[in-house]
Amino acid sequence: MKNINDSLLSLGHWPFAGSFGFNTDILATNIINLSVVLGVVIFFGKGVLSNLLDNRKTRILNTIRNSEELRGGAIEQLEKARARLRKVEMEADQFRVNGYSEIEREKLNLINSTYKILEQLENYKNETIHFEQQRTINQVRQRIFQQALQGALGTLNSCLNNELHLRTISANIGMFGVMKEITD
């Protein structure tokens, strides 16, 4: 690079030969060269650059259009998802309410059935007590009757003769049979 700069500097010391020569002013030559290059690039590259820009513009517009379509689809899916979420939330609330009502209903049913069972047990207890009382009363009656009968038989045996004694025993046995039928 240093050699090229040295050769360019050395060209600046050459004398001008007629009307043809090299312009050794670097700043002036760069501006001219750049304008020539830009002119050529603009003249010949205008179509290519225009095509590239048009293609890029078309791709950008297609991307924007696709993005808008995707955005619309995403918004639609979001609305559907929100609707499903609301529906599921309402169903969950309904299940929760129904669950609480079902629990309360089951609790009341359990309490009612427990009261019914307790009432039945109370009735069974009362029936058992009544039955035992009746049985005890009947046993006491039978013992009293047997003792009274034995006392009467003892009194009759000491006071009566054999014939009267046999008639009294037959009558008492008949009465005892009738009383037994009544108590059974």
UniProtKB/TrEMBL annotation:
Record field: transmembrane: 26-49
InterPro entries per the UniProt record, alphabetical: ATP_synth_b/b'su_bac/chlpt (IPR002146)
GO molecular function, one term: proton-transporting ATP synthase activity, rotational mechanism
The UniProt record lists the keyword Calcium: no
Lipid bilayer topology: Single-pass membrane protein
Subcellular location, record wording: Membrane; Plastid, Chloroplast thylakoid membrane
Keywords: ATP synthesis, CF(0), Chloroplast, Coiled coil, Hydrogen ion transport, Ion transport, Membrane, Plastid, Thylakoid, Transmembrane, Transmembrane helix, Transport
This protein's GO CC annotations: chloroplast thylakoid membrane; proton-transporting ATP synthase complex
Assembly description: F-type ATPases have 2 components, F(1) - the catalytic core - and F(0) - the membrane proton channel. F(1) has five subunits: alpha(3), beta(3), gamma(1), delta(1), epsilon(1). F(0) has four main subunits: a(1), b(1), b'(1) and c(10-14). The alpha and beta chains form an alternating ring which encloses part of the gamma chain. F(1) is attached to F(0) by a central stalk formed by the gamma and epsilon chains, while a peripheral stalk is formed by the delta, b and b' chains.
HAMAP family given in the database record: ATP_synth_b_bprime
Function comment: F(1)F(0) ATP synthase produces ATP from ADP in the presence of a proton or sodium gradient. F-type ATPases consist of two structural domains, F(1) containing the extramembraneous catalytic core and F(0) containing the membrane proton channel, linked together by a central stalk and a peripheral stalk. During catalysis, ATP synthesis in the catalytic domain of F(1) is coupled via a rotary mechanism of the central stalk subunits to proton translocation.
Protein family (similarity comment): Belongs to the ATPase B chain family.
Further details from the record: In plastids the F-type ATPase is also known as CF(1)CF(0).
Name of this chain's protein: ATP synthase subunit b, chloroplastic
Source organism per UniProt: Muntingia calabura
Lineage start: Eukaryota, Viridiplantae, Streptophyta, Embryophyta, Tracheophyta
Annotated gene: atpF
